[in-house]
């Protein structure tokens, strides 16, 4: 295998002048796979990006698929020069944190997908994160497709194997790869929304169940995660629709129909995400109302007990005053009588408040 060319990388040690020297870092550190496909079949052997594109253009047939994982600006420089990638698109691919979008630079398409993954938690009540996001950037040309991944959950190796097992599909060209990526991303959206829906259903049961406590902060956390999911789903609708409607000749007619199918699935996801957001807003209102009702109930109980305790407090306060002439002070049965009257008054108040459901 010919060694992949090394492009300047960053080191961590400083030289005598205090500057950080450039240490060569192999491009293979960032290249997940580089393959040449002709007539839908992968050519044997391993390829550098320069040898791969030379082989395709010598044959005037097939395409190159290069997969990169979180490259830096210097590492992607050689690939960008070889394939003529626009510097603005390259900058977006390196720095990530982009919204889903579709841009055209001369004869190259640049598309950004937001990937999501459901984070399994023992209980939604103790979860700090439900949806983990990543990104896939796709450069699409007439004879190449370059994928740049950010995040550890958005791997494309399985997808590559599935496509390689279907040569008729790969024979269409690079556009088939972009469609397969879009389809996988949207299918992951559907899977994540299924899990999120189950969690929200369980939380809804707890909110409306009697004598259960659900923290409003936990529901707000769910809303935050749904917002993150919505940021991945909603902006993707316009790019998919443009591809399905013939935005560029790089997407042939036979592939546009498949993009329309992906767009339909995305619409389903978008509707479900919107419903999640509305349902969580309802759950927040219900939880706050439940908390307010509980506080009112607690205040009524406190007020009731204060009213009952005020009776003996008043009597003790009156008889605690230093007066010589007070009723029943010198009477033998004065103390039992007063205690009996206090007890009867307290029990009467208790029964009245209990009947009115304050206690």
UniProtKB/TrEMBL annotation:
The chain crosses the membrane at residues 302-321, 333-353. GO terms for molecular function: cobalt ion binding; cobalt ion transmembrane transporter activity; magnesium ion binding; magnesium ion transmembrane transporter activity. Coiled coil: none annotated. Its main location: membrane. One of its GO terms (cellular component) is plasma membrane. Keywords: Cell membrane, Ion transport, Magnesium, Membrane, Transmembrane, Transmembrane helix, Transport. It is found in: Cell membrane; Membrane. It catalyses: Mg(2+)(in) = Mg(2+)(out). Residues 1-22 are annotated as: Disordered. Pfam families: CorA. CDD domains: MtCorA-like (cd12830). Mediates influx of magnesium ions. Alternates between open and closed states. Activated by low cytoplasmic Mg(2+) levels. Inactive when cytoplasmic Mg(2+) levels are high. Belongs to the CorA metal ion transporter (MIT) (TC 1.A.35) family. PANTHER family: CORA FAMILY METAL ION TRANSPORTER (EUROFUNG). This is Magnesium transport protein CorA. It comes from Lentzea jiangxiensis. The gene is corA.
């Amino acid at each position: 295998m010919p060694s992949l060319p090394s492009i300047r990388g960053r080191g961590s040690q400083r030289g005598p002048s205090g500057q950080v020297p450039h240490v060569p870092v192999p491009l293979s550190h960032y290249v997940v796979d580089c393959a040449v496909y002709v007539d839908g079949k992968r050519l044997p052997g391993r390829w550098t990006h320069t040898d791969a594109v030379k082989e395709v253009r010598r044959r005037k047939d097939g395409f190159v698929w290069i997969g990169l994982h979180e490259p830096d600006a210097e590492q992607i420089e050689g690939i960008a020069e070889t394939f003529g990638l626009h510097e603005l698109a390259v900058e977006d691919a390196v720095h990530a944190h982009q919204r889903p979008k579709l841009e055209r630079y001369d004869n190259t398409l640049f598309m950004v997908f937001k990937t999501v993954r459901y984070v399994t938690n023992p209980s939604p009540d103790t979860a700090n994160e439900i949806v983990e996001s990543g990104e896939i950037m796709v450069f699409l040309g007439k004879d190449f497709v370059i994928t740049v991944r950010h995040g550890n959950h958005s791997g494309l190796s399985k997808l590559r194997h599935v496509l390689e097992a279907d040569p008729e599909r790969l024979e269409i060209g690079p556009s088939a790869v972009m469609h397969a990526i879009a389809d996988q991303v949207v299918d992951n959206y559907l899977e994540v929304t299924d899990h999120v829906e189950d969690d929200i259903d369980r939380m809804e049961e707890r909110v409306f169940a009697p004598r259960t406590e659900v923290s409003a902060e936990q529901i707000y956390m769910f809303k935050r995660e749904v917002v993150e999911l919505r940021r991945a789903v909603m902006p993707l609708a316009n790019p998919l629709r443009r591809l399905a409607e013939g935005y560029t000749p790089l997407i042939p007619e036979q592939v546009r129909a498949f993009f329309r199918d992906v767009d339909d699935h995305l619409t389903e996801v978008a509707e479900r995400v919107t419903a999640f957001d509305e349902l969580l807003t309802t759950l927040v209102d219900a939880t706050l109302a439940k908390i307010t009702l509980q506080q009112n109930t607690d205040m009524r109980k406190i007020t009731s007990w204060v009213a009952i305790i005020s009776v003996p407090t008043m009597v003790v306060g009156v008889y605690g005053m230093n007066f010589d002439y007070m009723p029943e002070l010198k009477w033998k049965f004065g103390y039992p009588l007063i205690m009996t009257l206090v007890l009867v008054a307290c029990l009467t108040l208790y029964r009245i408040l209990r009947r009115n459901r304050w206690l």
